[in-house]
């Protein structure tokens, strides 16, 4: 007898099998979600990471702002998390406040770090960027027309660039070293309207100038620095992560940094490259004459970079103020750094206006703390403007670690009765524009030398 269909599918799965399949699918989905969402996954790069410990700013200093900004932007775009902190890299000018230094892999960087008292936390630095080098001028020049004797070298700005250009153009190391010693200038702008060219990078060329690229470049490394009193361990660890990321992201460059001999490096370094003057050298610059003692406004840099020198600076200002006031002149004191509080717009503070109160100046100098960046040009412009409004000659004595606002204009000193003396302290590069407006420039290599340097600046 034939069987009749009852409408039931004999091949249907049992409920237990269906449940098992559902469980397997859920497990696979959870595994995929875990892999995609775990820290460091590129799948979740568009999502905001959890900042369990909060936000952390990573201070990055560099000899080349364009290179550092590019590295900072790339690192920030990766949404880095270090020790449960969401890290944001920021560019700073003060090496003492930095957790990373981006600079040429060269003795010039070694010298700078040593002068600043900073040490690198890794044994071997890896390249993170290259910058083509060449020459720049306010007129166009073909590569084949560039001769070594026509090139000026701003070694104070970046010795590595000058060393690479000199090596590329010279017939040998001795010729390159001689050019670096004899043809150095403060900045590229010093050759404006001259029949010369300045060694520089493309990004470092002055605005509006023509850049001629050579077949050479400078290699940059990201050097994580050890922690200090002003750089926490968390920042130091973030600096190591920044350096790792930058090295792993670097694809290499076309032009390579040339082999630069010790002879050329020695000539390029700011502290050792100057040709020594001899007694028979009639062209040697004359020693600066002692300035005349007059009413004096002290302008003190209280940025982070001044931190190791502040007590000595305060003592030197107090002693000098008493001497100036004792000679019958007025004294005053301003301090400056980048604004530290919300709503504050200007970088300088008028603490003691010009008057006979030397002890008020000494007391105010002893109450300062440090913070921020040295906005020197803004403060000096304001101080000299104030000095010009005072009846009689006034000397502005600037005690500074360098300049963070080098892009700001520095107007001509207002009034014939305003004089400027500059005391530079610390490892950061002096601002040549500030030196140009000064009657007297002195340098203190250590905190112990500040007393004599400030005394010379006021004319004692």
TrEMBL record:
The chain crosses the membrane at residues 12-36. InterPro entries: vWFA_dom_sf (IPR036465). Keywords: Membrane, Transmembrane, Transmembrane helix. SUPFAM superfamilies: vWA-like. This is von Willebrand factor type A domain-containing protein. It comes from Corynebacterium timonense.
